[in-house]
Each structure stands twice: as C-alpha cells, then as structure tokens.
Amino acid sequence: MGSVLRLKRKESEWLSVxxxxxWELPNEGSMNILLALRLSYNHxxxxxxxxxxxxxxxxxxxxxxKDKGIGLWMANGFITCKGEMDLYDKGHETFSELVWxxxxxxxxxxxxxxxxxxxxxxxxxxxxxxxKDECKLIELNKVSEVPKKARHFSIVRNPEQSSPQSNxxxxxxxxRSLLWMDYYSSNHRVPSYLSGQKHLRVLDTSVLxxxxxxxSIGSLPASITALQNLxxxxxxxxxxxxxxxxxxxxMKNLMQPDITGCDSLRYMPAEMGQLTRLRKLSIFVVGNYxxxxxxxxxxxNLGGELCIKKKKELQSLQLSWSxxxxxxxxxxxxxxxxxxxxxxxKKLGIFKYPGSKFPKWxxxxxxxxxxxxxxxxxxxxxxxxxTSFPSLESLSLEYVGGLQEWAMVGGRDIFPVxxxxxxxxxxxxxxxxxxxxxxx
Length: 440
Prior knowledge:
Blueprint lengths: L1 H5 L4 H8 L12 H12 L3 H9 L9 E2 H10 L11 H14 L4 E5 L5 E4 L2 H11 L3 E5 L12 E5 L20 E4 L21 E3 L1 H4 L22 E3 L21 E3 L24 E3 L21 E3 L6 E5 L8 H9 L9 E7 L6 H5 L7 E6 L16 E5 L6 E3 L12 E5 L6 E3 L7
Parallel strand pairs: 4-5, 5-6, 6-7, 7-8, 8-9, 10-11, 12-13, 13-14, 14-15, 15-17, 16-18
Antiparallel strand pairs: 1-3, 2-3
Helix pairs in contact: 3-7, 5-6
C-alpha cells in the first residue's frame, strides 16, 4: 500500500484509496492482506498486471530467474515499447518496478550477475486468483483433464511417476507456454505432440534434457522447427547437446534461445542471420560450413552476453563504439579485454574506443599474420610498445586526441615490414620518433 500511496500527490487520491469498495468485502484473517494486495494490483499499469499475474505459472517459493521471467513476458506480448527503447530494457524496467512495489522479494544476484527473486505466498495466491484457468500449474498423474481455456502450463515434479503421460492430456489444447519446472525421469523424452502446437510461444525443456542419458540428448527433433510462433526456447545447461536443429532459421519469431551452458555445441545451424528478431544469444560457435560463420551476427541486434567460440578461422575483426555515446570507459576496457582474437587474425580495427588503455592481449599477444591494423580512438594510448607485428604493412591513427608523443621503446624495430603510416587529426601530437621503414 505504501508504494501505491507514495505515487498519489493529491488528497482526493488518498481518499479514493481509503474509500475503495474493495474494503467492503469480507476481510477476515488473511483475506484482509489479499484485499490490500488486490487494491495495490488494481493501481498497476495494464502491462504490469499481465506480467505479475503470469508469474502464477511458477510454484510457491520458486526462485524465478530475472532473465527467464523477462523472456516469458516478451514472448507473450506483455511488454511493448515505443521509440528506440529495447524490449529487454523495458523488461528490466518492468522487473525493477515490481520489486519496488514489493510484489517480488528476496532478490539476489549471484557471482555471475544473474538475478533471481521469489513471490510471497499471498502475492502468489493473488496471481492465481487473477489468472484462474488461463495459467495452470499441474502435477502429472494427479489430473485427468485440464481446462479447455488454459493456454499456459507448467509441469511440476511427480517422484512416483517414471514417465509423463502428457500426450493425451494436451492433445486438444492450443498451447502458448509449456514449462517443465523440476521434473526428473531417467527415460524422459520431449513429447511428440509438440510439433503440432503451432501457437506455442514458450518452450522450456531444460529440466528434461539435462537429465537425459548422453545417448538421448545429442540433438533436438527437427520437427521442433515447425513451431513458427515460438519466441523463447530454454535449453540452459544441456551439457551434452552437440547441435541445434538445422532448420532453426525458419523459426522467424525466435527471440531468445537460451543455450547458456550448452558447452558441447560444435557449430551453429546455417543462416542464423535470418533470425532478425533474435535479441539474446549467449553462445555462438563458429563453423566451417557455408552460413555458419561469424558473419551471421552482422545484422543481429543482440543484447546481454555473447560467447563466440572457435574463432581460429577469423581473419578480420572490427570493434566499434558509438561516437559520443554513453559507453563507460571501465566497462569498455573489460569488454575489449575479453575479445582476445586468435593468432591467425590478419586485420584488426578499433574505432571510437572510449577506454584509456589498450587491452592486455594487444600488449602481449603475438600476431604473426597481422597485415593491417586500424586504430580510431579518442583517448591517449598507453603501453610500452613491446608488441611485435612482424607482418604489419599498414598502420593508421585517427582522432587520438590525447596523444602528444609517440616513441619506440629502446629503438626496437616493432614494424619490420611497415609500408604505409597515416596519422590524421591527432591535434596534440608534437613529436614522434619511429624506427626506419625496412622496405621503403
């Protein structure tokens, strides 16, 4: 109630809360708390109401991952934004709003930066009363049928059942969301009926797949690509999954395939660049086949974290920051430090870098095949010049506003085959002493 009244500036608004008809309802015992929660809920924006009520899909005392919740909200269209604001940013804003209003509690962040929270039992009861038959949390073998109006399901653990009998249960349902919460079975398989669920937007099978024997979880069925409306696919920590369906490019609405921890993936499906709605991709494994290269990331507007594996075939790398943007200098230094290229790299470009010093790998890494390097940065260059570029032929420095002097340490011949040197718009540069050009 405090968060509701805090936003009311006029006396009439406070009186409106006090005189609400909701207080006229029976309010014995815990019902009084639920009435107060209902009143707080009624003052939420429509999209906040949807996001909160949808969390009834989780069981009581369930530790909900922030990113998982945001993915569910996005997939079901609860979050919309105007202008240039990203959906994920709006999702984070929504989560923070619900925390601030005390609908979420016990918010914790682990060492990896992953945030999780819980809902109080009373808040969970409120959410369930709102969603009623639209969202159902079920335990298999304890229900013989489900409400026809239900579109969102989560399945909880039934230790006494060896195999889920869900094919008949959901046969006539038009599913939108399906989540296995903590189900364990040694012979569990992804249900065959899923391929016919053309309206399915959220599929979380991670709890199933990471419990399967090694021989059973190497890949997903190709039929899963028929889920044209699927937006969120949770495969987190499926440690033995070595490939994704080849036709993944046809899942045009896919926004968040959570493959965090899928460390056995050998390559990505071809032409993932066609998934233009993709907003989050935690891993990209560069492959040798056509359409499996790093170029597939070029037109994708990705957020969050991205780990690029098998970069040994990468020959050209360009790192660019937005001019005059809000890039944090320390954060930019951490980012560029994490992007250490393979020694086969031939071309390296760094543009508008807001950091105050070069990455450690640039000072220490031996790049014997580097032919061209372009540095277009805005702050002074740090480093002792010990890096060796035995193949570098062309070097360009532009807009290095803080550079006043550049001299080679100890007269060492750092660029033995340098043919071209361009220094432009370095307005404070007063003196530079370079070694002779070996060729020209």
